[in-house]
Amino acid sequence: MDTIRIGMLGCGTVGSGVVTILARSGDDIAARAGVRLEIVRVAVRDLARDRGLPLSADVFTDRPEDVVAADDVDLVIEVMGGRGRAGDLVRSALANRKPVVTANKQLIAHEGPELRALAAEAGVDLMYEAAVAGAIPIIRPLKESLAGDRIRRVIGILNGTTNYILTRMTEEGASYDDVLAEAQELGYAEKPDPSADTGGHDAAAKTAILASLAFDSAVTDPDVFREGIERVTATDIAVARRLGYVVKLVGIASEVDGAVAVRVHPTFLPETHPLASVRLAFNAVYVEADGAGELMFYGPGAGSEPTGSAVLGDVVDVVRNLLQTVRGPLESTHRAATVRPMEDLTTQYYVLLDVEDRSGVLAAVAATFGQHDVSIAQVWQEGVGDHAQLVLITHRARESNLRSTVEALAATGGVRSVANVLRVESEGRS
Amino acid sequence: MDTIRIGMLGCGTVGSGVVTILARSGDDIAARAGVRLEIVRVAVRDLARDRGLPLSADVFTDRPEDVVAADDVDLVIEVMGGRGRAGDLVRSALANRKPVVTANKQLIAHEGPELRALAAEAGVDLMYEAAVAGAIPIIRPLKESLAGDRIRRVIGILNGTTNYILTRMTEEGASYDDVLAEAQELGYAEKPDPSADTGGHDAAAKTAILASLAFDSAVTDPDVFREGIERVTATDIAVARRLGYVVKLVGIASEVDGAVAVRVHPTFLPETHPLASVRLAFNAVYVEADGAGELMFYGPGAGSEPTGSAVLGDVVDVVRNLLQTVRGPLESTHRAATVRPMEDLTTQYYVLLDVEDRSGVLAAVAATFGQHDVSIAQVWQEGVGDHAQLVLITHRARESNLRSTVEALAATGGVRSVANVLRVESEGRS
Q: Residue B155: which domain range?
């Protein structure tokens, strides 16, 4: 073989990055891979569109099913995104014994176990470094570098849009709605519906993938508990700051008593935590392992060339394997851990209540917490009169107890409404 | 094969970590590697010493040459350190077609190109993730994850001892001698001679290894320009802080016009730089690549189990290759970049002068800088009378011009002595 011929499905943001980098660094990549790489077919929806890329017009086709079947394609890059169609095409490619490199987090998060089994059966590679945290190498470190260790917890800032919004809210005291509107103008958030990001769906898919690798188990997207950042207010962030925390949307995968807990939600994170200083659209993944201790991986979580770089790193790996007629290591699922129900989580909580500004309310609120076995660590009142609010930080408590508490609080005399509840990541593992 | 038999050279800090982790996580590791791993021979100097490790007494030998020759050893772990003897043993192991995993930075930094060639010839793996930055996965990301990209600069905090000393000096305003003495008591610095760390030798070896991988070239330890932290004073650190910098010992490898610049020295680093918040004995490596952008890898840079974890990650990789009868990717050296002389460096500088407290001195000093084409960005006087000092921050200048300036300053009227000169890492690449 003197050339590896690549077929690409999709040519949007990530695909353009792949083409651009390969055109610029093709000689280096060939020297490292041991063979030249050439993009010979690219499936797109709109053949008429000029993408301004260094590719000859005849590589483009609107028949992706031809790309995954073609005899002149040695390796398939899938960067079209989504599940149904992309999933069918990836399955066809694997069935045709073509290795696949994908940046598709939704596909891997939902169908990873099935697709990995297909790849194993076909004896070809399926790689997806670009599906989590863009350019940051995290799949390979979890799967290979830490293969001699035991991971206990992974915490990630995995979505640039929400981290951008929370950073701006924190640094400027701005409201969620104002920052979101600006982020949409700047292209950081989708218009008109930003909920794939703000609702935590994107981060949840990535967290499922990380949990699978960290705990040698088949964790999929529906296993992930998920809350978005839509209800985070400037007040929540101000309270957090006063107590030495920042509010971040994090994905947390941890192992407790042999079960895996997987969740995405806004969290009070101590401002001394390495993740606390990750600003704007940057991503980072923090890993706690028995032997290695605490590691962090930081970088751009999205973007054309960063994600393209991750795709090409995988491509070089696949090509090296092709030349030796082997495939890379399989994901291990030997631990087959069950997923722990969210109700069993134990952590600290921040509770903000709109209350009537009169004596006796605090006593009633405190009694409600006590009746549900949730112990209060700190409490104070914000505002007066119609704007009176109680801020409470609890000690570590069970999620189920906290939920009962919140339900009961809504019916507690003097409590107008439960304005917000957020989890607080303290030092202990949960 | 149902067991991979490991021979280990040395059983000190790192070796104990390997044994401990393997005993604790052997089942997981076997599931991931596809086969059980067993340590069958361990070469030590002192057979009589009880190491309290979960190994039967009969695996120990004081004849390392037997370990690398033994028919019942499939894979060699070298954790004895040093060059001469360790190098001979690694060469023997490779000649006997046994793959080698080593944590030996001095060996790889000096003899890496030769050893890699031997390994390639023998068709076996030589891996050394543990040689740089302990538990932090950095070799694999540079060699594999970024194989589709072009790296422009790598900056690392690669030595825990010096970072510990500088952190304590920064946070407590303490002197170098006081913190060093305490670090020696605590076991963070060697006694009586801490110079392998404080003189930058350890960091230089690691920087050479990183430069080789980042720039597809054979960079070895003697190519690295090196200055230690012994001359850094509380005054330097106080001045840095006032200007928004922290002082860190960093290894910097960068590419300029096709040549590689490789250097280790204390540096003023902007306090907003991701590396600036790396405290105490932690390490971190910051990578700038064309496609991926800016990445950072953070974690413990040393220690028994962290380094043992990195060794075992490599071991699992080697074992997976052994089972497929292949070897992992070779380091590419196709770029074969030359090393740029330090004199050609362009960066900013901090210069501290002991001066006479009288008029005309500043004019003379400024004239001296001007005569050597070094432009001054900021200047002020500290102290009065016998303690008068001039602090100068230059614009970007050539190292050779700065050196001429410093020589001339020593002979400039009113200048008592050049107290210190440190480089300042500004935003631009150098």
A: 139-300
